[in-house]
Amino acid sequence: MNGLVYGLAAFVGIVATALGCYGMVGGTGAVRLAWLVPLGGLDLTLDSLGAFFLALIGFAAVPTSIYAMAAPPDESKARFTFLGFVLSMCLVPLAANTMTFVIAWELMSITSYFLVLQDRESRSSVYAGWVYAVMTHAGLACLLAGMLLLGAWTGSPRFEDWRAAAPALASGARSGAFILLALGFAGKAGVIPLHVWLPLAHPAAPSHVSALMSGVMIKLGVYGLARVSLDWLGIGPAWWGLTILIAGAASSVIGVLYALVDHDLKRLLAFHSIENVGIILLGLGSSVVFQAAGQPTLALLGLTAALYHTVNHAAFKALLFLGAGAVVHATGTRNMEAMGGLIKRMPWTAACFLVGSAAIAALPPLNGFVSEWLTFVALFQNRHLSSIGLNLVFVLGIASLALTGGLAMACFVKAFGITFLALPRSDAAASAVEAPVATRLAMVMLAAACVGLGLGPTVIVPALGAVGASVLERAAPAMVGDWLTLEVAGGYASLSALAIAIALGAAFIVPMAALRLVRAPHRTRDYETWGCGRIVQTARMEYTATAFASPFKRVFDFFYRTTTRLDIEFHPQSRFFVQRIEYENHTSSIFHDWLYRPALELLRAGARAAGGLQSGSANLYLAYILAALLLMLVLT
Amino acid sequence: MFRQLRTALRAGIVTEPAAAREIERIGERLASEIARLFGRSLAIRQVDAGSCNGCELEIGGLTAPHYDVERFGVHFVASPRHADCLLVTGPVTRNMAEALRRTWEATPDPKFVIAVGDCGRDGGVFRGSYAVLGGVAEVVPVDAVIPGCPPSPAALLAGLLDAIGRQRR
What we know:
- The structure holds two protein chains of two kinds.
- Chain A is mainly alpha-helical.
- Chain A has helices spanning 2-24, 48-69, 73-76, 79-91, 98-116, 123-154, 159-165, 171-189, 198-204, 207-232, 238-260, 265-292, 296-331, 342-345, 347-360, 367-380, 388-420, 427-430, 437-455, 457-471, 497-517, 545-555, 557-560, 590-611, 618-635; strands at 29-33, 42-46, 479-481, 486-488, 493-495, 563-570, 578-586.
- Chain A has a three-stranded antiparallel beta sheet, covered by helices on one side.
- Chain B has a five-stranded parallel beta sheet, sandwiched between helices.
- Chain B starts with a helix and ends with a helix.
């Protein structure tokens, strides 16, 4: 039964990919069933941008479904919910009117809520589900308000009509709609400071669901942001783009900073999702600013970078979540401090996780490198903008992208090194076994996708450029080049991913071959790893994730606001003998302390004040009715 | 400030004269021997097997500006994995015996071992103590000995030259 349902989900994924690819090469299609739902009916339209996201959903759904087939029963039991989740996500980018969109969006949220709430016994899981439900419905309220207002102002619930009518709207109305819709979509995308649900929901959900939520579902927030800022509301003012750009810069840096000090493998990946959405928004924001400045070609460059990073993030984040799932299943813990030495026990998982780590750390020749490079190039085009203020924000984006890249690298040195290398830090890690074949197949598929997306920008960038050009009018292609080299922004920069890959490969292979050719004497002797001559070597002597993160904690102390507690119990006779030592180091979230707690307190205070009306006394209620009656009589 | 500058200018160079010709001569021969045997440089891992640190002071002196042994192609490295040669000091205490043996195992072949100082040679003043094994040769095969308590840097260089001269390609 499991195999059948997940097989069906994989099939849906294949169909979605095929349909999406068809749409990306110019195919169109529409389904309208007016009788099915009220207020405009079911309205599905395949257009280029929607098709791109549809293909993305399908692309991620296939390996995650294969992974789910072999997942342990307690993780894979919600199979129909999973299928519903995949189907509802497929509907979102196809939806062409408010009603269809909201239904698909809400179905997606509800199914994912139930998937997050898989483990109903654990308090943390229930709390995660609750926060997720609140955040996603707050977002839905914003979306609904924005869409209904737009529908009222333009006189149509269809997105196509908004496109035509938006330029005629008052600028205040357009901006109001933009703010409402962008807030709703940003919440789903996990943009800081609306990110709080992400690090809670991802560790609670089963790994294939986390992979899909992080790889694709939050991208639908990006999809919405792209629609709102470039498509539905026409060409907006520059501050829309600047807002997106600043949100992207903040998300990327803050996301990776939180990831660095988190030692829960899946929560670390969740924070990296925030970071990568930030990087995508850097590209998207630059695109909106260029569009507002009348530079459609550069806008296309930015949008292409954003779309490219969207695919790449889906590929490597799904891969990393599946790898983390395999590790968590093998060791029974998500805490990296209890792992170690898994590369010898789970070589396939380790190799795939390494590919994913290198990709997310933007190392050539993998995919993360190409899209971050494109984002850099797009941001550097600020030289075509004259306003100093705009330029400063772009420079901020460039600096934060550079910082993010470095910190992401450090973070994945930690994630891979502590999880897979050295000696096992627990019995569970020492007795871990390799994941089943289906899991490995899913990971290898995604790892191959990471390599393919990294080697083929000369094929992919023009395709994504065509998708972007369908959204941005009058945009000439920003990238030219032949099969080997990609040249962007009128000869400003060029990249030959394939040549880099060949050079890197040659750097490994040529010296080996040369040594073999000259018949250099080589004798090998197997001996244990050098451990400074120590006789007893235990896992307690190893580098820990906490120790790795410690310098970063110190440097960014103003942000983490760490509190340390060191508790040492000495021997009563002598201070030179320590009997017990306890060390705790906590970071506190500024968003929780400065934003959410005050907001929630305000809400509670308001509720308490309003609660005074509800005294429970029947006499008072009768008085209310009387007052209401009198008021009605006076007013009418 | 000007007073200080004036003093400095008037005083001229007051450091000791450059290293004796002896060092230069040994050093040049050492460099050519190293070039003949190792191509570029000789990587030495120094192991303190319970030394009183007298030998370490002299070995440290080799790398200081006065002798500056790196110019002759002698390089002290941080891991036996990178070393061609182990320079072992001390009478080999019981606690260090196993570590010394492991260090020797961890050094890639071909390698050679030089025992430094009287302690390294046969245990020196500690010989016969229950706490020491007495000499590096008790634990790992020794190719050359540089005696002295401690040997001077010049003696160390000469001993190094002697030890390398004995090595065959």
